[in-house]
Structure formats: C-alpha cells, structure tokens
Amino acid sequence: MSEVPQGPFVDGEFVSARVHEPRPMINPASEEAWTSMSNASTELVEASVQSASRAFERSWRGLAPGKRSRILFEIANAIRKHAARLARLESRNIGKPIADARDEIALGATVFEYYAGAIDKFCGETIPVGRGGLDFTVHEPLGVVAAITPWNFPFPIACWKVAPALAAGNCVVLKPATLSPLTALVLGQLAVEAGLPPGVLQVLPGEGGTVGAMLAHHPSIRKISFTGSTEIGRRMMAAAAVDLKRISLELGGKSPNIVFADANLERAADESPMSVFANAGQDCCARSRVFVERSVFDDFVERFVSAAEALRMGDPLDPQTQIGPLVSSAQREAVLAYVEKAQSDGRKVLKMAQALPEKGFYVSPTIVVEPAISDPCWLEEIFGPVVCIRPFDEEGEMLAEVNRTSYGLSGSVWTQDIGRAIRISRRVEAGVLSINSHSSVHVQAPFGGFKQSGIGRDLGMHALHGYTETKNIYVGETE
Ligand code: NAP
C-alpha cells in the first residue's frame, strides 16, 4: 500500500487517468512541498457519480443489514490498524499536532463502530390507523450522497458523513478540501479492502468551485452533506433548491464561553485556552468570545494568560506539541489581519510568550482584552488562535450580547449554580452547549448549529434519520 495517495479513488482503486496535472502539497510546518496531488477532472466526476448510482442499485441498497453492519465494523478495524499511518499523514498534510491527529483517527473508527452497531437498531413504527389493517414505516436510503468536507478536521468529519450514510444504505461521493485530501483517500482504500463493494464510496480530490459545485448541482445526487464556511453553505443551499436535494449544513461559529463569579475559576481558566487555541484555533466550536463576570474578570484573565503561556507550540510531529502551525500562509495572513486591526484600534492585545519556530505558518496564541462589541475580532469567525475576553455585569445584557451573533454552534457555561447553568444554557441560541466543560463532540449525541451555523445534525441517531426518507406502507385487511 503506497504511503501517500496522489490522486482520486474511484471504483475501488486509485486512478491516474482523467485527472489534472499534479499540484504540490505544502507541509505547513516546513513550508516545503512534500508530495503532490492530482485533482479529478469533470469527466471523472461524472463517471464516478454514474458508477456510484449503479453500485447503489446493484450492490448496496439491497444488502442485508447484518452484512452492511459487518462491513462497517471491518472498516473501523482497518482504521484502527492503520491509525499510525493515518495520523502521520494528517499531521504532515495540515500541521495538526500528532497527538490530536491520533485522537481524531480513533474518533473516526469509533464513528464507524457506532453506526455499524446502529444498523439493526434503526427501526420504523407500526401505527394504529383509523381504518384498521396494518400501517408501518420503513427508512429508505436516499441514493447517492455528496459529502463535502473542510480542512480543519478532515478525517473525523469525513467519517461523520460517510459512516451514517453507508449505514443507511446510501452510496457516497466524498470531496475532501483541496488542502487536506490525504486521509479521506486512504479511508476509501481501507473501506474497499475491508469489504465495501467498489463504487459505493468514491473519493474525489478537487477544487470546490469545480468538483464541489458539480456534485452540488448533479441531478443524480440526492443529498448534499456539507461542512464548511457559512458563505459556501449558502451556495450549497441554493444549489440544492434547484431539484430539492436533501441537505445538511455544518457551518461556522463564534461561540461564547460564559464564566460566572461562582465558577471553579481555576478549572475554567486552566481549560479555556485549549477551548479556543486547540487546532491552532481552526475549530468551528472554538470558544472565541469569553464573557467573564466583572468581579472576577482580572483574576480570570491573569489565570487564562498563565495557562495559555504554558501551552507547547512547535513541530506537529512532536508528541508533546499542543499547538501547531495554521494550515496555509493565506490562513496565517487572514488571522494576523484581525490582530493588526485590533492593535491599530488601540485595543489591549496580549501575545503569548512562546517563541515562534523559524519556519512554518505559526501564529502566537493571542488575547484581545475588552474589545469593543463592534470590533471585527469580537463579531467574526477568525479561525486562528485569537480569543476576545470581555467583562459583564448583568445576566440579561450578557445573554443579549451572546445571542447577537448570526452564528449559533456551541458554547460553554461555568457556574456552580445548577439552576443558573440550566437557565443560561436553555437561552443561549446554539446547538451544542457544555456546562462546566468545553466538550462539544460526542459520537452518540447530535451535533450541529442554530441560525447561520447550519441546518440538520451530524452524529448520533439524528444523523441516520438525515440519510433516509421515511416511507409509510399500509396493508389493507383482506376480509
Ligand atoms: P469552505 O471554504 O467553505 O470549504 C469547505 C468545503 O467546500 C471544501 O471542500 C471546499 O473545497 C468546498 N467548496 C468551496 N467552494 C465550493 C463551491 N462553490 N461548491 C462546492 N464546494 C465548495 O470551508 P473551509 O475553509 O474548508 O473550512 C473552514 C470553515 O468550516 C469554517 O467556517 C468552519 O467554522 C467550518 N466548519 C464547520 C464545522 C461544523 O461542524 N459546524 C466543522 C468544521 C469546520 P476547497 O477546499 O477546494 O475550497
């Protein structure tokens, strides 16, 4: 098995025909080209969708649930067996710290195990209808699903989409982000080696504007399952509207971290830096707006700074590293522009003390203290290691400010008062809330956003529903 895939994976094999010229892939830690990737041509996209449609009819939709389940368990086993290789690939591809990459590969395997086990527990209903007889529902697969994924958590997000879609009996055409196609391609290969019929999962590296747009508009695609920016999410929704494709959108965020004076301040401050600086801040759930009750504001900021300064930044392949480089020089420039704007507006900007490695797209973890509520850094998704911290005096005003954003993905509430914790978490407009914790992702629980953070849910049994149509069947009494 070749260590680094270099082109699309279609009908059970890597293909080198109907692809574009190879383009260099840059390692974000060294800034050097280390491998290359050939994107799929439009002819290959067309052939892949047609072939996935045939695989749906011939081999996958009719396969007995028990057999489907066994194949998904085998895919999970294969992911675990190849975990070290997958983690290394992810780390070199996007600069993700290797310890995080290992966790994310394991998470992908767990997702396959969860949906493998869910297949024979995903039941319809029998309904006592007025005219007697027998009325029941079945979950029908949709057909071919296009899964379009971002570069920040390439492997787990691919698994969040592919595993439930396959479990429900669909075929999938997966388009990973241009910057991060490698582990998705290996997933395709491992799945076929684990027994998935060729054509059921096609993996097409290619640019969003061509391959992604073509999938989103393709008449044989029945659902777009998209994770990425809100801006492209809107385009996906417009594309889906043409022929009323099913759609799920997991989009951007600007999530609050709300700290009350009665919180366990030590824990809240110790754990909060990694709720925004993990993955170098390139996290849709990043708690990038911190609201701290005024009486403990200075204390909290001091503790937050000292916890942030202790984070280890450096070579992503070093198992001790907690913060790696950003994914690209363009991403670094975009993030630094927010920091420079805050500085030129005269805000208090604290850059953490870590030395920046000589090479690589690194940005120092940065805290903007008390920005104005009209500042771009307070309002917009930065997608880098930058956090804004503001004091609040009164609960109602704080909640109004929390909910003023158009996003609504996640958030945290820190308090020892359980009544207040529940009251606040019910009123924050977000799909995923944590109390005295920053944990947002649980394989068994629904994940997704309110407002412009998305539509639909990944993970848990909710995701399975999203990859099926409910059909009602009535059987009349014969006599
Ligand atoms: P992005 O630019 O929206 O891209 C996401 C995916 O869409 C990529 O595969 C991209 O391909 C593709 N794409 C771009 N233009 C397209 C088009 N016109 N038609 C079809 N597909 C198109 O997002 P990103 O920069 O990769 O990821 C960062 C964003 O994702 C952030 O906003 C983050 O909050 C969000 N995100 C959300 C979640 C969640 O679960 N809510 C999770 C992770 C990330 P290319 O790579 O070729 O551009």
The rough form would be described as globular
Q: Which strand order does the major sheet show?
A: 14-15-16-13-12-17-18
Please estimate the helix content: 25-40%
On the 0 to 100 scale, the average pLDDT is 97
Number of helices: 15
Short description:
The chain is α/β, with parallel strands linked by helices and 479 residues long.
Structure description:
This protein is α/β, with parallel strands linked by helices and 479 residues long. The chain folds into 2 domains: 9-251 and 452-473, Aldehyde Dehydrogenase, Chain A, domain 1; 256-442, 3-Layer(aba) Sandwich (Aldehyde Dehydrogenase, Chain A, domain 2), CATH 3.40.309.10. It has helices at residues 42-60, 65-81, 83-94, 98-118, 154-167, 182-193, 208-217, 230-243, 265-277, 297-309, 329-344, 376-379, 395-402, 418-427, 460-466, and strands at residues 9-10, 13-14, 23-27, 32-37, 126-127, 134-141, 144-148, 171-175, 201-203, 221-227, 246-250, 256-259, 289-293, 348-351, 366-369, 386-392, 410-414, 432-435, 454-455, 468-475. It starts with 8 loop residues before the first strand and ends with a strand. The site of NADP nicotinamide-adenine-dinucleotide phosphate has 32 residues, from helix 7 and helix 8.
Protein topology:
Elements: E1 9-10, E2 13-14, E3 23-27, E4 32-37, H1 42-60, H2 65-81, H3 83-94, H4 98-118, E5 126-127, E6 134-141, E7 144-148, H5 154-167, E8 171-175, H6 182-193, E9 201-203, H7 208-217, E10 221-227, H8 230-243, E11 246-250, E12 256-259, H9 265-277, E13 289-293, H10 297-309, H11 329-344, E14 348-351, E15 366-369, H12 376-379, E16 386-392, H13 395-402, E17 410-414, H14 418-427, E18 432-435, E19 454-455, H15 460-466, E20 468-475
Parallel strand pairs: 7-8, 7-10, 8-9, 10-11, 12-13, 12-17, 13-16, 15-16, 17-18
Antiparallel strand pairs: 1-2, 3-4, 5-6, 6-20, 11-19, 14-15
Helix pairs in contact: 2-4, 2-6, 3-4, 4-5, 9-10
